Amino acid sequence: MRWLMTFLLGVLVGAGGLFVWLRQMPHAPATPPAVAADTGALPAPPPPSSGIDGKLPPAPQVMPDLTELDLPLRPAASDTPVAAAGTAPAPSVPPGKLLVPVDGMPFSKLADTYDQPRGTERHHEALDIMAPKGTKVVAVADGKIVKLFTSKPGGLTVYQFDPAEKYAYYYAHLERYADGLQEGAQVKRGDLIGYVGATGNADPNAPHLHFAVFELTPEKQWWKGTPVNPYPLLQP
Questions:
Q1: Any idea of its EC number (predicted)?
Q2: Closest CA to 146 of 104, 183, 93, 92
């Protein structure tokens, strides 16, 4: 029995020495994480996070640049409606003859001023009918008053459409409108619409009616169209 106790005691002493010996052995230091060389470059960004069902979120929408709206602007130095953009076919002419728009003015006293130059970039594209201030201005044909407009170049103006709304008649430099004249009013050939004046950019010493005809675009814009020479359309 004594020899067994001695054996077990020896085993325990040996195990304790082995534990002490293992603790005293040198160990290799833990390997530090690798550090990238300082090259001055920014670290790569993390991959984009995925959305629902592993799909990437949609890219944000970018609004397109706004373009300028098509507003009823007129050339600063012009008293004639703006010509339609692009190369348009030669305009047709209104059916029938038009009445001379200045009351009592014989056709023989009119001059064709349609092609007279106005500066270096445009032509008159209208008739100037000289008459004393206050002379009656009448509708050249049946139609509708679509716009009463005051502008710096044209002064007091009237825009009239023909019954088919294919042509517009433009009267400018008026002294005043006829009493009760309103937009939307239906007029007959020869009806009073205003009086000769020198408003706008007209010479105060040379009152006259600036009269123009233009073929409307499909949009029926009262300020835009293809000019038509009024002179051969007036009734002699």
A1: 3.4.24.-
A2: 183
